[in-house]
Amino acid sequence: MSGDEEDAGTTMSYAAEIAIESGFTDLFVTLTERAWVRDGLAPVEISALFSLVSLAHRDAEAAALLLDMPFLATVEMDDLGMLQDLEQLPPDQLGAALASPSLEGGIGDGDEVAVSALRLAALAPDALSRIERLGWVSDGVSAHESGGVLALHELALDARAVFAAVEARGWLRDGLAIAETRALWTLWAMSGRSYAAADEAATLRILAMPFLDEVSGTDAAALAALDRALSSSRPLFDRILAHPPLASGIADEHAVRVAALDAVVDERPELVDVILDPERTPVETRVVELPLAGAVTLSAVHAGSEPGGTLGIVEEVVRAHEGFMGAAFPASHVAVVVADIGVLGGGGPRGVITVAPGNGEDRRLLAHELAHVYWPFHPPWIAEGAAEFMASRVAELRPLAPCPLADTLGSLDRLAWEDRESSDDIYRGSGCAYSLGRGLFLDLHETLGDEAFRRGFARLYLAMRDESHEAVCAGVERGVCYVRSAFVGDAASASAGLAAPVIDRWYGATEE
């Protein structure tokens, strides 16, 4: 029995005990008849079951109504979030909330804002009223606006002074861009419950600084770097804000340097002063217009070295990556920090990557690290394999040593699953995630052809970004489950028939 199966069994036993004690055994029986319970419980479904039991303990009749609503036909991460929002309602208000006109027809997929608003109406009604008076909110919240509205809800509940300060800034009047939404979530993290060092007073101090008069992608990245510094070391955070150029407040001209600190605050904090010093660290910046993402700011930060051709290569690679993926480049600010941080290169979805001195013009290395802006996902053989594959599209294919630990990706996954504390060494330290992961994607590309492969590759990216299959794809085989869904389950039959044996060959036998 796997760990997930043991957790599921424990959860069902606990739920049965609560149902008997609280007198909702009929509801419990109905729950066990749901398809997503009968076919085994993934981690997200275990959490959902706990939430449903908690709600039934308060109001079994309302929980029975919930169980019949469309959003619980299957359980994904967004569905769990809505259940957890409902758990925060006062115990006597669940039934009335479910009868709200905003939920006519029951809660469906995509109703996150409506459910969160019910919670806010009960706990912070004045804040909800102010949010709903915003013109772009009262007109109806679109899918791309929902993340920003949810961030406002969380701020209003957890950090009311920060919420009021954001209102005073005026960002909210004409809608929220992606950078502003990212900034709101970062402000919530810095001021709320996300880590022990979170500090509302420090957040308010930063929010009053000039670089946040308007919020660009660079400003949002600078705020994220400050968040990382605060969570890593309060003395380091204070040292950054006390640095001579920043002591009177961070201005727009400082934002690129502050954003670059994201790369060093954890591993090389001694480089903070170097990067913030214009005499020791030249910075190049350009704004480019991408066909899908629109305006993106590119920066090259040369810590203790002279500028070279880095920025031009970065622009070429970012354009190539967006063109190949057919999906908007995920970051509106990209900074390449050329600095000695002890590794050849690194980076990921936050848009700040590092390369070692002397490698600022290494096209293949830059292409690999920039691909991680699209591909930060777990398991690492997807992230590293996809990044290696994308690097091969813009630079010469480099030879990779065969995996010394496993012949197939399935064997590699099981090794890492059995020794989770050493999983990064098993995946990355061995080189196996790179060689086996790239091998799978190269083979799929050769077998399917460029057009069909790109469709499947984009489906894989979007599904992993949105965590679309968490109720189905879980445990040791989570990664290959997503790959099969993208290249087989959701593909045209001809492509699916070609892709399936390739995936089987590279992954090996799967567990029943």
Characterization of this structure:
This protein is mainly alpha-helical and 512 residues long. Strand 4 and strand 5 form a beta hairpin. The longest helix has 20 residues. The chain has a five-stranded mixed β-sheet with strand order 1-2-3-5-4, sandwiched between helices. The chain has a domain of 133 residues. It is built from 27 helices and five strands. The model has no long low-confidence stretch (mean pLDDT 90).
Mean pLDDT over the residues: 90
Rg computed from alpha carbons, rounded to a whole number of angstroms: 24 Å
Beginning-to-end CA distance, first to last residue: 11 Å
Query: From the helix content, strand content and strand pairing, which structural class follows?
Result: mainly alpha
The tally of strands reads: 5
Helix content: 55-70%
The backbone outline, from C-alpha atoms, is globular
How much strand? 5-15%
The biggest sheet amounts to: 5 strands, mixed
Quick structural summary:
The chain is mainly α and 512 residues long. The protein contains 27 helices and five strands.
Topology record:
Elements (H helix, E strand, L loop, with lengths): L2 H20 L2 H8 L2 H4 L4 H16 L1 H8 L9 H11 L6 H5 L13 H12 L1 H8 L2 H4 L4 H16 L1 H10 L8 H14 L8 H8 L9 H16 L1 H9 L12 H6 L11 H5 L6 E8 L3 E9 L7 H16 L7 E6 L6 E2 L5 E4 L7 H9 L8 H15 L14 H10 L4 H7 L2 H17 L1 H17 L11 H12 L3 H15 L5
Parallel strand pairs: 2-3, 3-5
Antiparallel strand pairs: 1-2, 4-5
Helix pairs in contact: 1-4, 4-5, 4-6, 6-8, 8-9, 8-11, 11-12, 11-13, 12-14, 13-15, 15-16, 19-20, 20-21, 21-24, 22-23, 24-25, 24-27, 25-26, 26-27
